[in-house]
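Wed. Picked up where I left off yesterday with IS5 family transposase. The coffee machine is broken again, so keeping this brief.
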Amino acid sequence: MAKKIVSDELWSIVEPLLPPPTPRPRGGRPPISNRAALTGILFVLRSGIPWEMLPQEMGCGSGVTCWRRLRDWHEAGVWERLHRTLLEHLHHAEQLDWERACMDSASIQAKKGAQPSAPTRQTEEDPVQSAIF
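Structure written out below (tokens, as returned):
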């Protein structure tokens, strides 16, 4: 049997962080479960396939449905909360090695208007003034 993309342990961590489903006043087709959507999202992100090529046989709904759920969860701040929660779990399990941590301007916001720590050196010669005849 194939390994689950979303294990029961991972799902128990993720599920409380997800926003409750919105009611559908007009009825229609019931939405796919959050777990199925997460499975589809992780499959696309891990495999690198286009959203439209998500196999229907996986039971995750369409790629567009998974993409919309990804977008909605991003707007709701789910991914940031999940990142923090997973880091906390790893920290408590003593599975984080902070000696190997790395931060750069992509992960830490620079202060606006801060003075540079050193003056910028000129890398080329002074431009020659045009000779006017």
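Quick read: Residues 30-96 form one domain.
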